[in-house]
Amino acid sequence: MACRPFVLMRLQISAGGYEDDVESPDGEWLWYTGEGKNDLNSSRRQTGSQAMKGGNEALLNSHKLNLPVRLARFIGKDVAESYTGRMYIYDGLYDVKSVKVDKGTQGFNVIKFLL
Fold first, then answer.
1. Which residues contact 65 (CB under 8 A, 6 or more apart)?
2. Assigned architecture for domain 11-114
3. What is the pLDDT of residue 90?
4. CA–CA separation, 4 vs 8, rounded Å?
5. Is residue 67 within 8 Å of residue 58, measured between CB atoms?
6. What is the pLDDT of residues 100-115, one digit of tens each?
7. How far does the chain reach from its first CA to its final CA, in angstroms?
8. What is the pLDDT of residues 42-101, one digit of tens each?
9. DSSP codes, 69-111
10. 9, 59 in Cβ contact below 8 A?
């Protein structure tokens, strides 16, 4: 009998690529939209409902075990100092305070995590 691996999130990156992310003006909290079913190559819109697997499952497990996650935030593009042209900062440890499934802007189910 094979055991399924138990995944945990080590580092979460908030890259600003999901239209359903919501952040407080002071940056103290973030409703992070889970991964999956997002057209990252062109429209950057949801193309289907997300599933509780991969990084979404890892964030859920971190929530269940009350384990904080490290958060890196996207702060700008066209940055000469970065070989990718994108700049991120390490923002610290965040608790996954809540998990919910909402209808997103495009009408698909999106998994949201309050960090």
1. 8
2. Roll (2.30)
3. 92
4. 13
5. no
6. 999 998 999 999 999 9
7. 36
8. 677 888 999 999 999 999 999 999 999 999 988 877 777 777 777 888 999 999 999 999
9. EEEEEEEEES-TTSTTSEEEEEEEEE---EEEEEE-TTSSEEE
10. yes
Sequence-separated (6 or more) residues with CB below 8 Å from residue 51:
36
- β 22-23/11-14 pair status: unpaired
Task: For the chain, give every domain's residue range.
Answer: 11-114
Burial state string for 66-86 with b = 16 or more CB within 10 A and e = fewer than 16: eeebebebeeeeeeeeeeeee
Prediction pTM value: 0.83
